[in-house]
């Protein structure tokens, strides 16, 4: 019997959580405060969207077992480091994340910077030490992770995003920021999953395109939820994006325009899956899920 | 004719500088301010001690050509990232480094944090993309870099060092901090160089021991120079270590005791080279050089 999507999400979350926490709890980190700080942010939860997408891509191309799991764990560690650093006073200056004090509010700025550095650094050896991967696979996955997370990827996105504050961005500029800041790691999830299952170059290219659309779907829905989410009053801005001068899809296109734009991305994403012959896969289910999520 | 040590230091500095700057200048970093910030710190100079030690170890075990150069560049990028983050207000709060404003004084804290993150992230793909290394070699060198730089290595050292501020440390605690904070990356330089030249496991273990002594020699001489350096008045503290409550070798052992301790390390380092049959190598010359350096 095929697991329901909700059960799948829950079981994949649990699987990656167990793996990554067990791994980090075993690490001989010094001093104890650094270890506590790293574990605090890893334990804080979150959707584990990137590991779930990676496993779904892995399975969609016939992968079985836990080969992709260390790579998924490494990716979630990179994502977590980026949240710790983005929350810092010099960056977004956030006091809370997921209802808990941010890492630097709890452990101080110095430890938060080092905890982020530690997670980023550790992510590479998690892949390097993976038992089921061949050396060439490890090199591909580590090198690509460095590129996706680096100064032409996620770091560029965060840097551009900060420069864009209090400025009106065009739709093109907005998409560039999202493609870099969230799209590159989401794409990594999809491509790495397909790669671990043995997908060829042509398929990986299709998955790069698919990952980009997934990133955009994720972001447009984020912006839409900021307007319609909690109060559920369509067309009446209630969210935090309005207050600051951040460009969003609803601001640039109107709420209906944003929804139309998202449907276009959903269609384009589906097209990629069709071309890759996996149109009825878990990835298609996740595409629809992401476009309709309410939190 | 064998190059003099001074010529060797200069030519190796130039070689790694050209390589790393050309590589980073070609990178498509966004936005320009991030690129400028990364290049600013990489161009700020420094002794390039780690790349020099790596190349010397490589040559001492018969290595020829540029096989180790990308690894040396990656290591120097990791070292540079650590300086940028260590200088931050939340950490050591330094305004100047090598006579220039620190990265965050010049570009702001947010960009400095991201520039450090970018250098750390990029270092792994520099090794991953190296032309002369085999996949298994890349995996070894990337995984080991992650371990040496991570939360059981350099990051642990920086974290312990901050916790030790304004506290009296024992000699044992002091050595632990130095072994982690500077020793791990210096050891990486030696071991990675030997590894690139094809050294076997037993030799690599000897080089790990040698690297540890090199790290300690470096640090004791640092502490001694802080006392005797500029004013050249032996036994009369003139340096910055006295002002803050940092533990140093001269404080714990007296100046003569610190010198005796260093000579012991020099002897132990030499013993490792003897056992590895490279007692007359560039590494021996560098050991003596580091124990007698005046800057």
From TrEMBL, chains A, B:
Keywords: Isoprene biosynthesis, Magnesium, Metal-binding, Transferase. CDD domains: Trans_IPPS_HT. One of its GO terms (biological process) is terpenoid biosynthetic process. Gene3D superfamilies: Farnesyl Diphosphate Synthase. It holds the Pfam family polyprenyl_synt. It catalyses: isopentenyl diphosphate + (2E)-geranyl diphosphate = (2E,6E)-farnesyl diphosphate + diphosphate. GO terms for molecular function: (2E,6E)-farnesyl diphosphate synthase activity; metal ion binding. The keyword Transferase applies. It is an enzyme of class 2 (transferase). Its EC number is 2.5.1.10. One of its GO terms (cellular component) is cytoplasm. Its cofactor is Mg(2+). Belongs to the FPP/GGPP synthase family. PANTHER family: FARNESYL DIPHOSPHATE SYNTHASE (PTHR43281:SF1). This is Farnesyl diphosphate synthase. It comes from Terribacillus aidingensis.
